[in-house]
Amino acid sequence: MNKNSSVFKKYLPLALGGMLLTASVGLMSYNNGPGKSFLAESDLKVDTVATGLTMPWASALLPNGDILVTERGGKLRLVSQGKLDATPVAGIPEVWYKGQGGLLDIALHPDYKTNGWIYISYSSPKKDGEEGDDGGANTALMRAKLKGKELTDIQQLFKALPNVKGNVHFGGRIVFDKKGYVFLSLGERGQKENSQNLSKDQGKVVRLFEDGKIPTDNPFVKTAGAKPEIWTYGHRNPQGMVIHPTTGVIWEHEHGPQGGDELNIVEKGKNYGWPLITYGIDYDNSIISKDTAKAGLEQPVIFWRPSIAPCGMTFVTSDKFKDWKGDLIVGSLKFMQLQHLTVKGNKVTKREVIFDKIGRVRDVRQGWDGNIYVVLENSGKVVRISPKS
Amino acid sequence: MKLIVLLLSGIVFCSAVFPTQDDELAKSIERGKMVYSENCISCHMGTGEGVTATFPPLAKSDYFMENPENGIKAVKFGLMGKIKVNGVEYDNMMPSPGLGNDEIADVMNYIMNSWGNSSEKKMITEKMVEAVEEKK
């Protein structure tokens, strides 16, 4: 007994050392070093689930497997049982289809299964009596229900003002925080100074009740001259907006100037700095601001240099992509790829390009089935990314 | 005497007509610069150099300058699929910016007379843009 234990003691360090070595080798092959996830692009496959779309912008994945897709030209299309319905869904209002404008985002209410509400954003032409340029437009939000191939119960909820004649920067992303509020991102319509002007909706994220009413606890409700719908300001052209799955806080990305695309955490009343601070320069190479940081102005989580022209984004929450859980998948219009951002707390610790040259990515979402759906503007497709096995 | 009158009237005629045409081109280029800085600059860049292998250049671009109709078509209808510019292949998509024919003529005149490009005083007009159709 005694003898046995002394032998055990003698060989214990060796045994432990061996175990440690084996374990570390195992860990290394499993994890490939710190911060690297072992799920790779090569473990995933891409399947086309819809084709034949013209300049698709966004998708809503319905619980029955059907997909609603907005086409920027002004049509809402239904993909039913894998086939694009030849007849567009009726009930879309007149959209201002010019420049970057048109029919934009679509999002299902978090309780869609019970209430059927579908939210849609679009560039809305100036109506009589509305503030702003004649012949101009700005981003609007509506909601409706789908009955067969028709939108019913159509309600106009919000229109950003003033109308502006320029062709660019409509923003347009819709997101719900599951506490009864809906958020809409708004571009500065090519007038950067107005991002800082609280009396205009340009360059803002706005918060509304789900029926379009303005919450009285919005941050600028009591500020003289300020628009009460404003939640945050100092944005340029935000075209990606999602809710963090555990913190419930908004993460947003926006097209910046040259070399200044940003990923931001968007919180009540904060100023995200455009155009007072930026990591980019203007496209004619002129300096917009010599500052990249200033007191009272928020810093991005990351910025992209060169710009990737980010569009669409989702947090991964599905068990199908276990190693990527909590991470972000971001689309790039410019480089026609996806980027997988490893997220730790409020930081991005790693960026990797996946599915390079997949297409001009407009929209990235996780479906009810846990797979990731991507809208490709150039090929007019919706594709599904899922694990190979 | 007759010759002198002819010459003089010729000079007067030329000074009346050609500067006007040059003037119109200059004005169109000026307007085109505004159209460019709003609709084109973020991809094709401030000096028309584009982004190699991602967005094609417009400065000294064979695709564009050797056949301006290529440019009109791209701006009028958008462009999709593979093209080769100065020996480099591009396979991105340019959505139609939805400009009016007058704006297209202006931006064409600006591009064709900037960053080392020259249209040799030839001007793209609204009518020429109107005449360009989507299918060859």
Automatic annotation (TrEMBL), chain A:
Gene expressing this chain: yliI
SUPFAM superfamilies linked to this entry: Soluble quinoprotein glucose dehydrogenase
Membrane-spanning parts: 12-30
Stored InterPro entries: 6-blade_b-propeller_TolB-like, Glc/Sorbosone_DH, Quinoprot_gluc/sorb_DH_b-prop
GO molecular function: oxidoreductase activity
Residue ranges of domain Glucose/Sorbosone dehydrogenase in the record: 53-384
Enzyme class: oxidoreductase
PANTHER family: ALDOSE SUGAR DEHYDROGENASE YLII, HEDGEHOG-INTERACTING PROTEIN
Highest taxon of source: Bacteria
Its EC number(s): 1.1.5.-
Protein name: Aldose sugar dehydrogenase YliI
Organism: Dyadobacter linearis
Pfam family, one: GSDH
UniProt keyword list: Membrane, Oxidoreductase, Transmembrane, Transmembrane helix
From TrEMBL, chain B:
Residue ranges constituting the Cytochrome c domain according to the UniProt record: 27-115
Lineage of the organism: Bacteria, Pseudomonadati, Bacteroidota, Cytophagia, Cytophagales
Pfam family, one: Cytochrom_C
PROSITE patterns assigned to the protein according to its UniProt record, in alphabetical order: CYTC (PS51007)
Annotated keywords: Heme, Iron, Metal-binding
Coiled-coil region(s): none
InterPro entries (alphabetical): Cyt_c-like_dom (IPR009056), Cyt_c-like_dom_sf (IPR036909), Cytochrome_c-type_DH (IPR051459)
Protein's name in the database: Cytochrome c domain-containing protein
Classification via SUPFAM superfamilies: Cytochrome c (SSF46626)
